[in-house]
Write a structure and sequence with these properties.
With about 190 residues, this protein is mainly β. The protein has no helices and nine strands. It has strands at about 20-30, 35-50, 70-80, 85-90, 100-110, 115-130, 140-155, 155-170, 180-190. The chain has a nine-stranded antiparallel sheet with strand order 1-2-3-4-5-6-7-8-9, with no helix packed on it. The protein is globular.
Amino acid sequence: LDSSRRTNGNTLDNQEGVMGDAWEIAYRYERALNDHAKFALGAGYTHGNIERKPDAIAPAPVGDFTDDYKEWNVGAQMNINALGFGVVYTQNNAGRAQNGDITTWVIGADYALTDNLTLGASYLNREYELGVVLSSQTIDTDRYAAGLRYKLGSGVSVSTTLVQTNNDVPSVAGSGDVDATSLLLGTKISF
């Protein structure tokens, strides 16, 4: 039973395989090169403390953390007139002592055709190590997205995005490859 679902609303302290305190630090630098171009650079680090590592004699249940969670990231963004593009790289250990790294690359761009219409596209690549038992196996994900946003008026816009996701899953880890196509529709109201 998850103690956070009990009536007191708190979890127990010093639990095996559970994250406790976490902290994060980040830096962002922005600069306008001229009236038409600006850029931003950023980096960050996140650390989550495991409350108590699992006993060495009995392996941790699947899904439990076995080490402190550690993640770092770097990113860059550039805007030149109506064109914007950016890239981000991040890696974390998924709270695993070994063979649990998740590495992600994302690159994206957008272009404002008019004051009201913006087109955008992005690509994501992720590699997820499957842990100690399947240490040489990874799930590889590629995601392609393209969309548009249209401003209807002051504070109101609509958007749509088409996403294709391809997951290469080793046969030893599940039922094989998993692919998906999604169409997202949205409305944003700002006031």
